[in-house]
Structure formats: structure tokens, C-alpha cells
Amino acid sequence: MAYRAPVEDILFALKHAAGFAKARVDGLYGDLTDDDLAAVLGEAGRFASEVLAPLNAPGDRSGTLFRDGEVTMPPGWKDAYRAWAAAGWNGVAAPVEWGGQGLPHAVNAACIEMWNSAAMAFGLGPVLTMAGANVLASFGAEDLKRTYLPKLVSGEWMGTMELTEPQAGSDVGALRTRAERAGDGSYRITGGKIFITYGEHDLTDNIIHFVLARIAGAPDGIKGLSLFLIPKFLAGPGGGLGARNDLRANRIEHKLGLHASPTCHMVYGDRGGCVGYLIGEENRGMAAMFTMMNEARLAVGLQGVAIAERATQQAAAYARERRQGRPDPAGPPGARASRPSSPAGETPALQQVPIITHVDVRRMLLTMRALTRAARAICFATAVALDRSRLAPDAAGRKAAQERAALLTPVAKAFSTDIGTEVASLGIQVHGGAGYIEETGAAQHYRDARIAQIYEGTNGIQAIDLVTRKVPLNGGATVRGYIAELRRTVDAVKAANDPAFGATAERLGAATEALAEATEWVLAALAARPDAALAGATAYLRLFASAAGGSMLADEALAAARQGSAAGDGADAPGRIAVARFFAENLAVQAKALARIVTEGADAVLLAEAGLGAP
Amino acid sequence: MAYRAPVEDILFALKHAAGFAKARVDGLYGDLTDDDLAAVLGEAGRFASEVLAPLNAPGDRSGTLFRDGEVTMPPGWKDAYRAWAAAGWNGVAAPVEWGGQGLPHAVNAACIEMWNSAAMAFGLGPVLTMAGANVLASFGAEDLKRTYLPKLVSGEWMGTMELTEPQAGSDVGALRTRAERAGDGSYRITGGKIFITYGEHDLTDNIIHFVLARIAGAPDGIKGLSLFLIPKFLAGPGGGLGARNDLRANRIEHKLGLHASPTCHMVYGDRGGCVGYLIGEENRGMAAMFTMMNEARLAVGLQGVAIAERATQQAAAYARERRQGRPDPAGPPGARASRPSSPAGETPALQQVPIITHVDVRRMLLTMRALTRAARAICFATAVALDRSRLAPDAAGRKAAQERAALLTPVAKAFSTDIGTEVASLGIQVHGGAGYIEETGAAQHYRDARIAQIYEGTNGIQAIDLVTRKVPLNGGATVRGYIAELRRTVDAVKAANDPAFGATAERLGAATEALAEATEWVLAALAARPDAALAGATAYLRLFASAAGGSMLADEALAAARQGSAAGDGADAPGRIAVARFFAENLAVQAKALARIVTEGADAVLLAEAGLGAP
What is the ipTM of this complex? Predict the structure, then answer.
């Protein structure tokens, strides 16, 4: 099934839900015009739709081949990658001085969504390269940057991000990979890493590994971790490839999905000569790695959006085409003898209607569309906050934006990937029996989407991060300030006084107050009963996203209504109001219950040890 | 990962949540003793755990092989099936006069759960054989029964159930397979069927197809459908195999899961000689097929329970074994420097704790356990109602039970299979990255579970069936009577006055009143605005299951508390109270919001056509 990059929708979300328009007014984005923006995203959309999307299903079917430490990517992937890198897409947001285009992170976020909609297994690799380039630019020594950064920015060489070891998954502090000072400023690395995305492949001639390891004599735990750059091939004279380094992949994993993304078990230095270069200071590796992780977390959130968008497109197209049953009853019963899609009526095939006309199918498609757009808005808003944290003219503005980005990042990651799976599952359901057949393609989205809830910090850990680190920022002032903004949207919906919004203002108002109440409870609980705060963390994150996502959809709807339908720009005021209303009345309506789980549900978790007694 | 049949838990749910104990007191089950029951289920559990469960992962990996119209099952499956049938398991609930054991349907339901936990792809086939035997026993002519029923009851021959054609999925009335009278009382069948489970295989020497087709000259739609028995091999003299009938599988599907269950595309009569025998009257095929479908729907619900149980066992075992991070903070912060599973603390591997001790993991496991038990109780209660509908001494009792079973069947099917997928997904999440690796096995449950939301009537159709046919039974008296029973459980929890129940009574009371309110709204809407009733159907079904499931878990907890922990019998009062409380406070707490979606959410769906405008 074809993918059509939703460029207009993306532009609209960027500008009117995520704060891109305001950031431009505030001068953050220099002289970047609307036309520039549309041109970049239009071009990215074309590449994604025309070059990458056709690789997705074949890549899933053929997977990657592992033999003798080498990984062969699916047919066509190397050419596509090289064309993609040659067009400059790897360096969209990278510094101009290192060969990047220096565009806003928000623009890159929009591109990342499209690469991953087209082929998530493809989009995943560059996310790690970009994050590696970013950490190297921020923390690397000058000569290391000169040698490696231009090629990581251009994408000529790809990067990896390596924390996990068998005994150290979520528990990073437990890792054991060792580094010894070699005397020449470099280090000798020994150890192994598992679940390494794009750890080995043939897309590029060299692969640059960003690896956490413990220098001999360093403390236990995360305070003894340092970050190393470990190239597959050492840099040769003149910037070419030098000697093969002592590292290799010794297996790849057989996974539920993402079959075209090689997940490798890496071995370092078992022949005694793996050369690594320290990035930043000794024992300060986690600080540097967090830079990579935060960027990667947002990118993973965008993968959730991406897969949701593609699943929605596919389901909507199928629902317009597939004919089953007669029209649903619109008036009082009796006018028609039978129920839709039920075996009680008579339905000559000729009278069958497209299933998109059935109420329950429309409910599923609306759910898919509303969740996708809400997650997109949250991710883009996080990206704009990151831009503002670098580009705002005043230090206070940068600090506030940095805190806003910190607050939103776990929500962007966890909510978007949770709904990625939910939407992909609904996509199967819309297809009925055909959805369970692999050739249809809906099942691939469902398989691919599932990992995003796990990698770059499981969604449970995102929720714990939100509750225990982000909500307490500035004694709660950061989150309270955000909630105050949500209230302004509620007021604006009220003030619009447009009956098409239905109960949007009431439901969003209730959701926002539920979030406020749960937030105050969490702040108090963190001091008095931190375990109780942990018990409700996942519900709190969903509550946060319900209020924030609903509010952003309302922002979009209000902006579209202001512009009028004739304004173009993907405004579609009736459609945006309908989606905002659906989200408020059918999804955000859960907010009060979520708040109750946070504030009153903890004892049921904490006292329940006995309930786990059964096998 | 090993499966241990939860025989004690199943027995407890049967007796104390599903009404089996009361049915026995009422004399429905003759002289069936507790010991008989425990012996049968214990034996079934042993067979499931020891013989079938080890076939599950290898069967998924090897799948079924299709060549020249023949399907080869995975290694070991034929022997296992034959041993299973030889032990009499296919005929547990079949009539004694045809070679069955004549045990209650509820006992068979418990067995079906265990077969499907052990290997869902295995358990699926016999469900169709049993349903076919049942429809033949109920509607077939005497000579047809004599020829085919003993072998379908013993399982020597397996059966299929065939409705779907390419243009007729949910829309059964649109099917085109034709039957012509042959003049000798039999018919000649021509046409094709798709998505036919176990349509071809080598487990048995013969396969009996139960096929809906339209007799020449019959009306369009479902009122022109007749049910036919079409044997792969005609019966030969002396009950052996006669001539090969003109039917074949011409492909099998490549599916997301259930790889060891062959899903076939069947062709009938393309050489002009496919012999079929009418079951029941001409043009009354749907009535007979509904018998099969209702039985199969409950069995599919049990598959949801089954996969949820197995996923829960596997996740709990992993969570007890896998060590990551330090203990979660139980008191005020400061006592420990770091958060669980976070990269901020120091965690030498030796100090790592089993992840089951982390609050968020316990929340996931409790959710899995509570949803699984609630779904099991609903399915078993449906089975007991079916028994009562056949066995109650008075006609009024049989009619009331028949209506109760009709009311609960769509809930049992849809809720159990929805939570089957949800629980399997949580099972992956508990495993972290390992959950995404196929060898772990958690992913197989997730893939296998997904079909159950689709086949035997999609869950959307179950919800529409509940709202448009079952809620209106007896002008609403059936559902109101059921709600009155739920209220009695709420009162009993209140009366128990046990602080361990926490807010169980309040939450279940609120859920029950939300269900009552939504029910009255639905009854009114069906008359005035049936499309609005359809829009909320899925939320209504979940609301129904939340109130019913929560109530049944409370029934179990109350029964366990009455018995005391010393009573054995799987009572575990503290554990059962904890699970009931968790369900009420963390899951059923959504009831009010679900009711609101039903009663106030419809316009957002019905007016939203514009919202689907984007691609």
C-alpha cells in the first residue's frame, strides 16, 4: 500500500500546534520562510513516498542476512541510503560548519517522521547517526571532530549507540565493558554489547560506534562510565579508511518486526586490539550519552507517530475501497430490516457499501487519526522547545525552553509509541481477516511498531522519569506553567463559542484540571510516599498526554477556524474541529479516571504482592 | 517457557465466579462430584502442559507446509492430536449416545482454555470439530448423524466451519457458493471459500466441511443460505473412507501468527462433482450456523483467556528471575540516592533485584492477572448459562439461562480477546528488549492472540450484536436482571466490611450504576437514534465487561474470604481480594468515562465525516 507523505498536515501541526510559527515570529529561525519550509518538507515527502516507501514490505520479507560477521541489507537499501545521504537529508539539522544544513530541529523532526512512515527499519539507522554526530559535536575533542564529524554529518559513515549488555538493560550502571588507557591518548576496549541497532551492515563503508565502557579503576555504577568512539575502520591518512579495528558482530537477532534493521550482538577487543577514543571527560559518559538518548527518545516518539500515520492511511484507503453490508441505520429503526455487517439482513453484493460508511469503522478511523495527530503535535512541540533551548535570545528563555523540552520528552516518547501500537492494531482490525494476512501489510506496521515502546528506555521508565524528575523541575513550576498554557487553550475554545466544538471545552477543561490535581498529588507524594507516585506513573503520563494532545488539537482547530477553509495551508477547519472534538469527547474523557488511578490507585498496587501468587 | 495449567484457579473461578457450584446445587450436573471435576481438569491440565505446550514454539517456527493441495502439519502434531483424541478429549461435552462423555459444557470450556494456552494453533482445530458435531447432532438427519457423528465426536475425523468468501466476510448474506439438487437427496456444490481454518491437514484421514451455500433458485441474502456437510472423502461401506470428493485447498495463508494452524483457500466442485449433504432445512442454514457460531464465539473468547494466562505466566516467571536495578523507594526519598531502573544510581550487578519487585512491573503483572481472571470468569459464566439453558428443570429457567448466555456471549468473545492482545502486549513489555526477540516466546503470544479479535465475528460486530440484539432482549429485562445481580455483589462487598477491599465496593458500585445508566440510554437510543447507539457500542461492551468482570472477581474474593486461607481449593483469600481490588480501583474506575462515551460521544463520531478528509 502506497504511502503519501502528509506534508500539509505536518506543516499545519508544526505551525499551529507545536509553536513553530511563534518561534519564527520570535526570530529564532532567522529568515526561514514559509516557502523554504514547504519546499524542504515537500522534497522530503517526495523522497519518502517515492524512494523509501516501496522498500518497506520487501525489506520486511527478505530481512537482513548475517554471514561471517557481515550483514547484507535487503536489495535496494544501499542505493536508497546513498541517494538519501547524497541529497543531504542526514545533515538537515546539523551545524553548517560541519557540512550540515543548519535547519531547525523541528524541521528535522518532520523529516524523521516521514522517513519512518516510509520504512521504519530504514529511518531508525540515521536517527542514531544523527544522535552520534550531535554528541560528538557537543563533547568531542577537536581532532576527533575533524576526523569523524563531517562523515557522520553527511551520512557517508553511519553511527551506533551502545549501552545494553546482557546484565545491563534498563540498569545501565551495571555494565561491564572495560577500557584501558593505551598510553597514546587512545584506549583499548574489551567487552560485548547486545541489541545494537545497525551495529553491522553494508550501507556505508565505515561504522562509528558510540560505546559506554568503564575505564580500569573507575567507580562502580553509572558514575564510572565513559563514552568512547570506536570506528569499525580506523581513519587512514587523508580521511580514508585505515586498519580494520578489533570489533565485530557475532550474531543478529530474529525479531518480531523491523526485519530490515540489523540488531547485532557486538564483540570488542577479543583479539586484544580494539582502539577507542574518549569523548568528553573520563567518567562523564552518561552526561554525554544523555544528549544522545534525549534526541533518540524524541526520534523514537516520532517513529510512533510515523507508524500510526502509515497505518491510518492504509486503513482509511482500505475502508474506502472494501464493500460490505448495507448503510447503517440513520433514523429510527424499521426503515431498514437489518443491522450493518450482521448476518440478519439480506445484502446482495451489488448493494454493498464501502465499510468507511459504517459507524464502528468510522469510530476506529477517527480514533486512529486523532491519536496520530495528537502524538505528532506533542513530538513537534518537543522539537520546537529544543530549538528554543538553543536559539532563544535570552538565557532565561533558553532555560525555560530546555525545561519544557525535558518535561515533554518522556511524554513524546511514551505516548507516541503507545499509540503507535494501538493505532497499528486498529489498522489490522479495520481490515478484518485480511489484516491478519502478512501480504496485506497492516501486520507489518503492528510488528514494527511494538519495539518503540521498549527501546531508548521502556515506556515504564519514561513514566518514572516524568514523575520523579520532570514534574519536580523548579519545584513544580515548570509543569504548572505548562498546565496554565493548556488552560488558555480551554478558554480560547470556550471563547470561540462555536457549536461544532460540541463539549470540547468542557472535556478538555476537565482533563486539564484532572492533570493539575494529579500533578499536585504527585508533587506531594514524591516527598511523602515515592512508591505511591511510581505506582501511578504510567497513568499520569497518559493523563498528561490526553490533556496536552487534546489541547494541541484544539489549537489546530482554532487556527484553522481563524483562517477559514479557503485559506489552503491544509487548514480544513471542519475536519480539524471534528478531530479535536472527537479526541476531547471520546478519548480525553478518560482523564478523570486516570487521575483517580494516580491519586487513589497506588495502594492496590503496593499492597498486592499476594495477588501475584498464582503461577 | 513452560506452561503450568492453572487447574486450581480454574476450579475456583468455575465454582465461585461462574455459578458452577450453584448449578450443581440446583441439580443440573447430576452426581458429578468435586473429585470428578478435579480429576478431569487435572488430567486435562497434565496433557496440556506436558504434551501440547512443548509443541507450541516449534510449531510456530516450522509452520505448516502446503504442496499440491496437501498440508503437512509440524513435526509431532499428528501424534499429539491422535493421543489427545484417543484420550477422549474431543468428546468431553458431546452426547454419550454418540460416544461423548456428556460432561457439562462448562467443564469443556475449562479444557478448551487449557488446550489453547498450551498451543492456540492446536486448540483451534478441535473447537471447529466440536461445533460441527454439535450442529450435526442438533440439526442433521438421522442417517447423516449415524455416518459422521461418532467420528466427529471421537475426533477421528475433524471438522471445519465455512462461511467466508472474498466478497462476503462480515457480510455473510453476500456469499455465492451454489448447491444444485442431485436428485438422489444429495447436492452438488460449486464455489470457493477463504480463510478456512484447518481446511486441509494431515492430522486425520478425513475432514468434514460444514459449508454455507445457496441452493439454485433460493432467495438472495441470508434467507437463501443452506448448510451442507461436505466430506473430503465420502463415507465408504462399513464406515471407512470411500471416494475422494471434488474439493481441495488451493493455497494456505501466510499469517501474522497461528503459523501451525493451516488457513486455507478451498475450492468446491470445479471438476463438477462435489457431493454435499443438506443439514436441516433448505434456506435455514443460518439458524444452524448460528449454533456453531455461538459455540465458536465462546471458544474464541476462551482463546483470549488462554493466551492471556500463558503470557502472564511467562512474564511473571521472567520478572521473578530477571534482575535489574535496586529496590524501589518505599519510604520518603533520601534514604536512597537513586530511582529504580534509572541511570542515575550505582548498581553493582550483585545488588540487582528481581524486576518483579519494581512497582511498575508489579502494576503490569497485576493488570495481566486481573484482566485474565475477569475474562475467564465471564467466559465460564457464559458456559454455565449454556449448561443451564439445556439442563434446567423448568422451561422458564431454561429460557432465562438461554437469554443470559445470549447476553454474555458477545462480551465473552470480544472482551476476552481484546484483553488477550492487551495482556500479551504487556507480556512483551515486562520482558523489555528480550520480549521483541522471537526466541523468547512472548512475541508469539502477541502474534497469535491478534486474530481472536477478528475471527468468528469481529469485536466491533460483537459490540453491535450486544447493543442491538442482546440489550433489547425482553424489552431490556434480561440485561436489567443481570445488573441487579451485579448490585448484589456490590452490596456483599460492602457488607463484608473488610478494609483489604479498599474502595472495591465504591468503584464497582459506580461501574454498575454507569452500566445501568448507559443501558437505559442505549435502550432509548435504539428506538430514536440507532446510529448513535452503534457509535458507542464498543465502549458499551467494555463497560459491561468492566462491571461484570469486576463483580465476578469480587465474588471470588468473597468466596475465598468465607473459606479462609486454610481451606485449600486455590482459595488464597488475600491474593483474590488484592486482584479484585486492583481491578476495581485501577481498571473498572474507567466505567464512568466509558458510559460518557456511550451517552455523550456519538455526535463526535457521527458528525465527523470531515475529520477523515486527510489521506
Answer: 0.96
